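Subgroup meeting minutes
Present: P.N., E.W., G.H.
Scribe: E.W.

1. P.N. recapped why we're keeping a running log of single-chain structure predictions: easier to compare across weeks, and new members can see raw inputs and outputs side by side.
2. G.H. added today's entry (319 aa).
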Amino acid sequence: MQETGAQSIYFAPLEGITGYIFRNAYNEIYGNVDKYFAPFISPTGRSSMTPRDRRDLDPDNNTGMNLIPQILTCDASLFIMAAGELQDMGYKEIDLNLGCPSGTVCAKGKGAGFLPETAKLRSFLDGIYAFSENAGIKISVKTRLGYYDPEEFFDLIEIFNAYPISELIVHPRIRGDFYKGEIRREYFAYAIEHAVCPLIYNGDIYTPQDLEDLSSYFKTPLSPVMLGRGLITDPSLASKIKGISKDTDMARFKEFHDTIYHEYQKVMSPDINVLYKMKELWSYWSSMFSDNSRDIKKLLKAKKYADYESCVYSLLGHL
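Output recorded in log:
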């Protein structure tokens, strides 16, 4: 493991999960994240972002953290419109989403669905990087290896190398892999050898040992790295990787849970809407309580606060 403080960690965006309530709770209680990436906004001809997006990205709701907004579009004019508004809000760096594998997203030629359209992609990048140079704003790119075949990545790297990409975040899977199967490590190794912009690795890091194994495979320390599902599954993972802690602190986890739960209650109703958000988190957290599967099953069926709290505090009440 690298020396304490040497490892830089980015928190990946997960739509519906890592909004400002989650980010604030995480940053206050766990911290040790160097950049947080917000779930994507998808601008339209009507508006750069929805009221919910605007609330999520409001700097007043994201104090004390380095937050990077992310844009999902295949239209350069819409990207530029949204980026200009984000710049007016005070943001100096924006991420382009070329990795989302969702069927509805890809069907519109966005996210990973943009990757096979290489001529259109070049034209798009021409436009947004001309804007970025004039506006003095950085644009990073989060990508997959390709849409149909990982060997698409060879051409994509040549395309990306032609632009002043501030950071290239690579999830070494193709669209059809979604988030399953083995990471295609050899293609990230190719990026290490051939990419001219700073590279960020993203994908399947759930333990400090996972990161050590990847660094050994690539024969180079990976820093920064972007963590997503791993950080949600084990919120103490960043602290473990940085050598600040060795174990999962369950008292801290209880504080984290309670903070998110009560903050959602302030802005959402009725009970079932809050519980839907919490159950989505428990689909990740349940792995920490594999010996309590009965309570987890009851928790996931709860429809009222009282029932939910009874299940949660049978798991956490002794802390």
